[in-house]
Design brief:
Strand content: under 5%
Distance between the termini: 66 Å
Structural class: mainly alpha
Number of helices: 3
Largest sheet: none
Radius of gyration: 21 Å
Helix content: over 70%
Length: 58
């Protein structure tokens, strides 16, 4: 069975398998991803503070 046939017969299972493969393939990048998520959260918090401060001045 080719990959395309498998994908057509079992689309959900194919996506789950692909997700697991991607996770294991990209595992070294997981720490970087976690750091980026934390930085993004910090950025959003700071932006919210800036927006609140500019609204108070208006």
């Amino acid at each position: 069975m080719s990959d395309d046939e498998y994908k057509q017969l079992h689309p959900i299972l194919h996506e789950v398998t692909r997700t697991y493969v991607d996770l294991y393939t990209n595992r070294p990048n997981e720490k970087n991803r976690e750091k980026l998520i934390k930085l993004e959260k910090l950025l959003h918090e700071q932006l919210e503070k800036i927006e609140a401060a500019t609204k108070d001045k208006s």
